[in-house]
Amino acid sequence: MPGARVLLYLALVLVNVASIAVWIWTAKRRQLHERPSSADVAIGFVTNFLDTLGIGSYAQITALFKLRGRPADELIPGTLNVGSTVPAFLATFVFVIAVTVDPVLLACMVASAGAGAWLGAGVVSRMPRRGIQLFMGAALLIAACFFAMTNLGVLPPAGTAMGLSGWRFGVAVAANFVFGALMCVGIGNYAPSMVLLALLGMHPIAAYPIMMGSDGVLIPVASLGFIRSGRFAHGAALGLTVGGVFGTLSAFPLVNAIASHLAVMRWLVTIVIIYAAVSMLRSARIPSVHVASTVTEGRS
After folding, report:
1. Residue 173 sits in which domain range?
2. Could you tell me if residue 294 is inside a domain?
C-alpha cells in the first residue's frame, strides 16, 4: 500500500522537524549556550557508526557518558534521546527506502513505538536521580545480555516473511510500544526487535526498516518530552548530533567490508557496557549508604 508508506514518510518528517524546532526555540528561550566538547562529538561519531552497522548506540552512549563522569546520571536519558534525533532521522530514510517490508506493519509498529516513547519520556523525566540510575543500570545489563546472546548464536533462527498477519501482527505492534517506552531509559530497540521478529518468523533484513523507522519517530517524540522538562545536557546533545551525522554517513559504505569483524566489536562493547552497568548501580547505592551512615552517627 503506497499510501501507508507516504503517510509514514510524512509523519517522520513532521515529527523530526517539530522536535528540532522545539529544541532550537527552547535553547534560545532558556539561553542554553553550552557548546559540545570534542569528546561529545567523538562519542556521537563512534556510537552512530556502530548503530548504522546494526550494533546499536544507546547502551554505548550511556556507558561512555558514565565512564567519563558526565553528564549527570539523571540527564543521560534525555541527552542521548535529544542528541540522537537527527542521526536517527538520517538513517531511517536510507533503510526504509532501501528495504521493502509490509507497509501496514511498518506504519503500525512505528506508530506504536512513538506512543510508547511519549509515555516513557513523561515517566522518566519525572523520575528521581536514584530511580534513573537503577533503571539504566538494569537496562545496560539487559543490553549486555543481548549482545552476548548474539555472539554466542543462541538467538532464534530467522524466518523468511516480510510481513505479519493475525495474532503475530498484534504481538509485534504491542511489543514495539513497550520497546518505545524502554528506549527512554536507555534500552535500545535493535536487539529486542530482532529477537521478536525472528521469533515471529520474519526475515532478518525486515527488522532494519522497522527498527530504523521506529527510531525515526520514537526518538524525536521522546526528545520533545525531555526538552519540555529540561532534563538533558544541551552541549553533550549537540555533540552527539554533530558526531552522529558524520558517523552515520561514514558507516554506510563500510557495512559489507567490516561485517566479519562485528562479533569482535560486540564483545568489546559488551565488556564496556557491563562495567558501566555495575558503575551505575553502585552510584545508585551511594545515597542510601550515606543516609544509613548519617542515621547511625546520629544514634551514637
Report:
1. 2-286
2. no
DSSP string, 122-155: HHHTTS-HHHHHHHHHHHHHHHHHHHHHHHHT-S
- CB atoms under 10 Å from CB of 102, counted, come to 21
Which tens digit of pLDDT belongs to each residue from 128-155? 767 777 777 787 787 778 777 777 777 6
User: Measured between alpha carbons, how far is 300 from 281 in angstroms, rounded to an integer?
Assistant: 29
State what percent of residues in the chain have pLDDT above 90: 17
Domain count, the chain: 1
Residue 229 domain-assigned (yes or no): yes
Supply 243's cell numbers.
558526531
Angle at 202 between CA 90 and CA 204, to 5 degrees: 50
300 lies in some domain: no
pTM of the model: 0.69
Quick one: pLDDT band at residue 206, thresholds 50, 70, 90? confident
Look at residue 49 and tell me if it is in a domain: yes
